[in-house]
Structures are given as structure tokens and as C-alpha cells.
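User: Design a sequence. Structure:
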């Protein structure tokens, strides 16, 4: 339950952060108006536009839900829900080091399973079904083309993504996510080894493709196929797709932190809150790189 509160909140903050960083890169201002009202006479505390994600969420919640006339209404409804569920489930397989998790019995901790890494990839692969369902059910040529592009890209890059993770699994001798993070205690992070750095580069590039991030945003190419597989989505259903993509970005970055960056290990990580801070710092470091790449790399046209 806490994850259902924490990660949507982090997602909202990340959307604001991405818009501000991209605006800075492109010499723009970015969101800076929506803030906290202070008086009945119009005063407000803008806080650099931190209220913008909340305003966007409210707008999406009450926006009209438009369904194409020829669309398969059942699958058109199920697709965004099925796209969000795997992204949320895989978070359970990451040892996130939040304080309340230590009070839960090991027998019900998903990341304590011996095959946690396998379950992560197996569940995340279910997202391809939802994407194709969205493209097919919309009865739109751009949506279908975007769905086919997404599936081809995700299936293709799944292989190097898994193989780069296998390198770490073979070195540790365990598929347990907690054991993999524990093997990197102190500064023994795998990224500091030659083989670990090479595997991390392959993993990160494949992760960009898996999450449809630039420069692998071909399934959502605005200049070619409008918005890809969610061209015909609006309102709350579009917000579910948007939420699923960002949570998937958090999940794949979290797995990279576990496999290569030592999880929550760092100076003072014996204290639970500091270990949690280390994990989130590494997580947002990888997400910042993804945002930076989007702002600097051009999208290749097919």
C-alpha cells in the first residue's frame, strides 16, 4: 500500500522535473505558474510551478473520455489498465530499503524470492500484450503501427537486457535481488569492474528502448504517427498509460541500481533512512540521465 502512495507521488514530481529540465536545456521557462494559493485576493506561492502535476492530474481525471466509433470498447478500456498493472507489480521485486519494509516478515517479501530477477523480467514482459491490445482495439492505422513498433522494439531489446543481468547473476550466484545488492556492500559496486561497467552500459541502453525513451521513442513518434499506440486515448485512460510508462522507468532504473550500483549501500547505509536516501539518489541519478538524453538527442526518423 505505501508503494501505491510513494511512487505516484514520485511520478508526479518526475513529470515536473522533466519539464523543467527540458525547458532549461531548450532555453525556456517551463511550468512556473501553478502553486499554492495564499489569500482570497489572488496571492500565491508558485514554488517553481510544483503544483503543475496536480493540476494536470485533475485535468486528466475530469477530461472527456473519447472512444472511437469502430473501436473494440472492451479491449480499449482494458489496455491502459493492463499496461499499469505489470509496472506496479515489478516494484515489489526491488529491495527498496524503506523503514516499514523491515517490519514485514521475510516470507511475504517478494524481493526475498530466489527467482526475484526472473519474476521481474517475466512480469514486465506482459506490458507488450497491453500495448498491442491498445493499438489493435483503437482501429486506427497510426495506433496499430505504433503498437507494432513498440512490440518489435521491446522484444528485440529484451534479449540484451536479460543477458546483461545474467552477467551479474552468474557472478553473485543468486537470483535473489536482496543477495545481489548485499554482495555490493561498501563500495564494491559492480559498475566499478570492467565487466560490470560494460554490462551496465548494455543494460541502460536496452532499458531506454524498453521504456520507449529517447532516442528509442519510435513507437510514439509525433512527427510520423501522431502519438503511437495511444493516439485514440484521452482523459483518465491516457493518464494511466502515462503513469505506467513513468513507473516502468522507475522500475527499470531501480533494477539497474540493484544490479550494478549497490542498491542502498553507501556511506552510513547501516541507518535505514540513509540507505533509503542512497537508493533514491541513485534512482533519480539514472532518471536524470534519461531526461538529459531526451533533451539532447534527436529522434531518428524511420
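Assistant: Done.
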Amino acid at each position: 500500500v505505501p508503494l501505491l502512495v510513494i511512487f505516484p507521488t514520485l511520478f508526479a514530481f518526475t513529470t515536473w522535473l522533466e519539464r523543467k529540465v527540458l525547458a532549461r536545456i531548450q532555453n525556456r521557462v517551463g511550468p512556473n505558474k501553478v502553486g499554492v494559493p495564499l489569500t482570497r485576493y489572488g496571492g500565491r506561492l508558485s514554488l517553481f510551478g510544483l503544483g503543475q502535476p496536480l493540476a494536470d492530474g485533475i485535468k486528466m481525471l475530469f477530461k472527456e473520455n473519447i472512444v472511437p466509433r469502430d473501436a473494440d470498447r472492451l479491449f480499449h478500456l482494458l489496455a491502459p489498465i493492463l499496461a499499469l498493472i505489470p509496472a506496479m507489480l515489478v516494484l515489489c521485486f526491488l529491495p527498496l530499503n524503506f523503514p516499514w519494509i523491515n517490519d514485514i516478515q521475510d516470507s511475504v517479501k517478494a524481493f526475498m524470492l530466489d527467482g526475484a530477477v526472473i519474476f521481474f523480467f517475466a512480469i514486465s514482459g506482459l506490458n507488450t500484450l497491453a500495448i498491442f491490445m491498445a493499438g489493435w482495439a483503437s482501429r486506427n492505422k497510426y495506433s496499430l503501427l505504433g503498437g507494432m513498433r513498440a512490440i518489435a522494439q521491446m522484444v528485440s531489446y529484451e534479449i540484451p537486457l536479460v543477458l546483461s543481468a545474467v552477467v551479474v547473476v552468474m557472478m553473485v550466484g543468486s537470483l535473489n535481488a536482496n543477495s545481489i545488492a548485499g554482495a555490493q556492500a561498501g563500495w564494491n559496486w559492480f559498475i566499478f569492474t570492467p565487466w560490470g561497467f560494460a554490462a551496465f552500459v548494455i543494460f541502460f541502453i536496452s532499458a531506454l528502448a524498453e521504456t520507449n525513451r529517447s532516442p528509442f521513442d519510435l513507437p510514439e513518434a509525433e512527427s510520423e504517427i501522431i502519438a503511437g499506440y495511444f493516439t485514440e486515448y484521452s482523459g483518465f485512460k491516457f493518464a494511466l498509460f502515462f503513469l505506467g510508462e513513468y513507473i516502468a522507468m522507475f522500475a527499470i532504473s531501480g533494477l539497474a541500481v540493484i544490479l550494478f550500483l549497490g542498491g542502498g549501500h553507501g556511506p552510513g547505509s547501516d541507518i535505514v533512512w540513509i540507505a533509503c536516501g542512497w537508493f533514491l539518489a541513485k534512482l533519480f541519478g539514472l532518471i536524470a540521465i534519461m531526461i538529459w538524453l531526451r533533451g539532447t538527442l534527436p529522434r531518428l526518423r524511420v
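Residues 152 and 166 are 22 Å apart (CA to CA). The beta strands are 36-37, 44-45.
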